[in-house]
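chain below, 114 aa
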Amino acid sequence: MTSGWRNDGDPLAAIAGAIALIMIVFYVGLIRQQGGQVAAWFLAGLAIAALLSIYGVARTAPGRRPVLAVSGLMMVALGLLGILSIGIPILGAGVLALVAATRAAGAGAGSPAR
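prediction:
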């Protein structure tokens, strides 16, 4: 008996994307609480990295490996820039995306591992 749920997604890429989205919300809330100005370039970079990770969740997505690698590198760079405040979770998300990219390379170019 099947449950109807498909198990074709990559959980590492999904977790990386979810962490990035959560950190966007946390960052905006933190900056507003302090009465400061949100860095638009930081938000844009983190949003792009999150979207790239979410794209990479589908194991059959074309160009999945380079997309996850770019996402991971962006999050690692942004995590290092924000290391004194919100950078550690972003850095961790970047590492997860890079591991997902490495695993995608091992599984073949876009072919699902079954």
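The chain has one domain: 11-106. The mean pLDDT is 88.
thats it, cya
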